[in-house]
Structure formats: C-alpha cells, structure tokens
UniProtKB/TrEMBL annotation:
Protein origin, superkingdom: Eukaryota
GO molecular function terms noted in the UniProt entry: antioxidant activity; oxidoreductase activity
Organism: Ensete ventricosum
Residues in the signal sequence: 1-22
SUPFAM superfamilies, sorted: Thioredoxin-like
Keywords, sorted A to Z: Signal
Signal found in the keyword field: yes
Alphabetical list of InterPro entries matching this protein: AhpC/TSA, PRX-like1, Thioredoxin-like_sf, Thioredoxin_domain
Name used for this protein in its record: Thioredoxin domain-containing protein
Transmembrane residue ranges: none
Pfam families: AhpC-TSA (PF00578)
C-alpha cells in the first residue's frame, strides 16, 4: 500500500495517488502546485519517491514533515495592524488596544500542536507574571479549521477558559495576520517595543527556551523572559535569538493529507 511517512509513523495515502502506474514519479501536479505556494521556511514538507516501493505497480510517496523553524524577520520590523475576534468573549481586538503598553508580545499558537501543548501552562505563568509589569500580550491562532477543526473558535474558547489564559486568544480565520507577521509555526513569539513611533518595533523573535516535547530539557522560559526583561527595562538584548521551533501553521491551500501535525 502507498504510504505517507512522518515523525509519528506511517499513514495511508489517499486513493488519488493509487492510480499512478510507475514506481518513480514526481509529485502529482496538485501537490507540486501546493508546495510552490509555501514560503521558504514552510517548504520543509517534501514529497519525493520512496527508494523501495511497497508494491512495484504502485508509487510510494514519502512525505517528510520536519519541525518548522520561524523565519527571518529583521529587528525593527513594525507590528502590522490587526483586527481579530476573541472567541471566548466575542470582543474584536486591534493593535491599537495595546497602545498604552510599553511592549507587546504577540504569540502564534493553536490548540492541537504538541509543541504548544508542551509549553501551554508555562506560557500562561510567564505571561501572567509580565502582564502585571505592564506587558501587553495577545495570542493568535491562524490554522485552517478545514483540516484541523479542533483549532476552530469554539474549541479556542474552551481552551482559553480551561487554561485560564490571562491574554486574549484571537482567531485569524483569513490567515492574513499570520502572513503579515511572517509567522510560519506554532508556537512563535514576536516581542515588540515602543520607541516613540507607531506602531511597535520588533525587539525579539525567537524561542521560548530550549525545551522540546521529546528532548527532556526542563522548561524555563529563559530566552523569552530574558528578552522581556530587557525590553521592559530599556536595555539592549545582547544574547543571540534562537528561532522558535514547532508545527507549521496549517494553510488553507494544502491538500488535507499534506497537513502534517
């Protein structure tokens, strides 16, 4: 049987691939077209013929769903305007709602991603601590609900209530806000500072810390908290900024079977 290989194991490919007769074929046009629409960091989802097809009369395509790293956005990048609903309360939030804050943390997260689940409680603790010091915080989910309905607004509201999120958790249904920020993975952290000009200026884009779901490194929030301490105290951040690592943001254009975890 044709198979899809990913980190979690083997999955059957949809029947649309079963009609091909050769064992070594390029990706079908639908797949190739979808891959061409991806930004460079997200184009880690590769389709290639397997070396040893399980049946000689059918092609076997191997889909590698590697972890996605946040891309390169220059420091000094200005926070894009957004206007998004909060499923829990029904309120519509905009960038202007955080104008009184000395700094703003924008997080791209979602419900289902194991990288987000790994940090969820610690994100809540860290943001609660710094919000008391004046930090503005907002979380945004931009995942396609066609492929991942568990990331839809109804479940976002349940998630925010269950984990007592101290920040608004907003739904980017069109995915326009994710594109404007250049966000490609969950979780992804954008820390902006106020510099007397509007809008906020990007100060830090990087990881929460070195902990991952399977590396047994304790969760500390060191990288992000260090950046927040610096931005709130007006100091320069002298340490390096490691990219955030997580699940790719699930865009509407991809076929369902390419929407890897």
């Amino acid at each position: 049987m044709a198979t899809v290989t990913r980190a979690a194991g083997l999955l059957p490919l949809p029947s649309l691939l079963r009609s091909a007769s050769a064992a070594r074929l390029p990706p079908p046009p639908m797949i190739a077209s979808s891959l061409r629409t991806l930004s460079s960091p997200t184009r880690r989802l590769l389709v290639r013929p397997a070396l040893k097809p399980t049946r000689p009369d059918l092609p076997t395509f191997q889909v590698r769903a590697s972890r996605t790293e946040s891309g390169a956005v220059s420091l000094g990048f200005r926070a894009p305007h957004f206007e998004l609903p909060e499923p829990l309360t029904g309120k519509v939030w905009t960038l202007d709602d955080f104008e009184s804050c000395p700094a703003l943390l924008v997080m791209f997260i979602c419900n289902h991603c194991p990288f987000v689940k790994h940090l969820k409680r610690d994100i809540t603790k860290l943001t609660s601590f710094y919000m008391e010091k004046g930090l503005g915080v907002v979380a945004i989910s931009s995942n396609s609900t066609v492929t991942h309905p568990q990331d839809g607004p109804e479940f976002m509201a349940e998630e925010a209530k269950l984990f007592k999120y101290p920040f608004p958790y907003l739904f980017d249904e069109s995915q326009d806000v994710a594109r404007a920020f250049g966000a490609v993975c969950t979780p992804e952290f954008f820390l902006f500072k106020k510099d007397g000009r509007r809008p906020f200026e990007l100060f830090y884009r990087g990881q929460f810390d070195d902990s991952r779901p399977s590396n047994n490194v304790p969760i500390t929030g060191r990288d992000l908290s260090r950046a927040i301490d610096c931005v709130l105290s007006g100091q320069l951040l002298t340490s390096g900024q490691k990219p955030s690592v997580g699940c790719s943001i699930k865009i509407h254009a991809l076929p369902i079977f390419l929407q890897a975890v």
